[in-house]
From TrEMBL:
It comes from Glycomyces mayteni. This is Beta-xylanase. Keywords: Carbohydrate metabolism, Glycosidase, Hydrolase, Polysaccharide degradation, Signal, Xylan degradation. InterPro entries: GH (IPR017853), GH10 (IPR044846), GH10_AS (IPR031158), GH10_dom (IPR001000), TAT_signal (IPR006311). It holds the Pfam family Glyco_hydro_10.
Length: 346
């Protein structure tokens, strides 16, 4: 993609990100004064997170927005949304160069009307590619990838505060996933995707997102090394997303340290797809650990749970904060309490 004003884009991007960082730091500083009395504790997840300059969001499926209980819970409890599927490649570009944004636009409009932020998910992923992409090779695939990033990121410029630019490009052992993107484009394709996203929307924060990175392990270390390399060479990466699809009782002994080591590279960290299989106190304890770990890392900017209610979760082990009848679970209370005590740890 040709960018006629790359310098202007980079300057605009740096200014916008610097302004956002200053604003977040100011809110975090004020929060130390806000949390002087338990009586001042917020009563919803989004409001509580906002008092430390963070967001607490949920993944949204457009087909459920017409359900009153779903919409009311989403609008009341959360201050950020992300599309489960409506912004992915198969949904936004079903045919070459033919973009359709109806689902994503519906979510953005719904969120904006309620003063909620929107995360973008995801520009490039090995899964949920439209059929026409799967057979492309070489420069045809490279051009398709760059054109897709440009079309989608341009469309949502100013409406999405962060993008998962690349999703799930590493294997458990730290090697690159042998997707069509990796096989056809080589090791440079992730950098190419980030540079294209930066040119298309220089104000959005650009994230790498993956699962199985909930502690210091082979996979998270490989991603850490990539991010460190990107930062050393000026590749535009601003944040790393940790999906955190967990189960009650999972070993999270290095979870906070893992978040912190990425933050120490100079990127923000976000919990992007949190859900915890289980129930009762075990599930609540795991949600509590994740929440407090984020609060303890100054550059952990927010948490997104992957869904609103157990009724519509992609998992069948009741992994969310609201049950199938939209009742608050024990895990909800643990998260809210952790957020309301967060002023002293941020």
């Amino acid at each position: 993609m040709t960018d006629p004003h790359p310098r202007t884009h980079r300057v605009r991007r740096r200014l916008a990100l610097a302004t956002a960082a200053v604003a977040a730091a100011g809110i975090a500083a004020v929060s130390a004064l806000v949390f002087t009395s338990p009586a001042q504790a917020a009563t919803t997840l989004g409001a509580s997170a906002a008092q430390t300059g963070r967001y607490f969001g949920a993944a949204v499926a457009t087909q459920h927005l017409g359900e009153a209980a779903y919409a009311n819970t989403l609008g009341t409890e959360f201050n950020s949304v992300v599309a489960e599927n409506a912004m992915k490649w198969d949904a936004t570009e079903p045919n070459p160069g033919q973009f359709t944004f109806s689902g994503g636009d519906q979510i953005v409009s719904w969120a904006q009307a309620r003063g909620m932020k929107v995360r973008g998910h995801t520009l490039v992923w090995h899964a949920q590619q439209p059929g026409w992409v799967q057979g492309l090779t070489g420069n045809n695939l490279r051009n398709a990838m760059v054109n897709h990033i440009t079309g989608v990121a341009n469309h949502y410029e100013g409406k999405v505060f962060a993008w998962d630019v690349v999703n799930e490009a590493f294997e458990w052992d730290g090697s690159r996933r042998q997707s069509n993107l990796q096989i056809q484009l080589g090791n440079g394709w992730i950098e190419e995707a980030f540079r294209a996203a930066d040119a298309a929307d220089p104000t959005a924060r650009l994230c790498y997102n993956d699962y199985g990175t909930d502690g210091i392990n082979s996979k998270s270390t490989a991603i850490y090394n990539m991010v460190r390399d990107f930062k050393s060479r000026g590749v535009p990466i601003d944040c790393v997303g940790f999906q955190s699809h967990l189960s009650a009782g999972d070993n999270l002994s290095s979870y906070q340290a893992n978040l912190q080591r990425f933050a120490d590279l100079g990127v923000d960290v976000e919990i992007t797809e949190l859900d915890v299989g289980g129930s009762g106190s075990g599930q609540a304890a795991t949600f509590d650990t994740v929440t407090r770990s984020c609060l303890a890392v100054a550059r952990c900017t927010g948490i997104t749970v992957w869904g609103v209610t157990d009724k519509y979760s992609w998992r069948n082990d009741t992994p969310l904060l609201f049950d199938g009848n939209y009742q608050k679970k024990q895990a909800y209370t643990s998260v809210l309490n952790a957020l309301n005590e967060g002023g002293s740890t941020c």
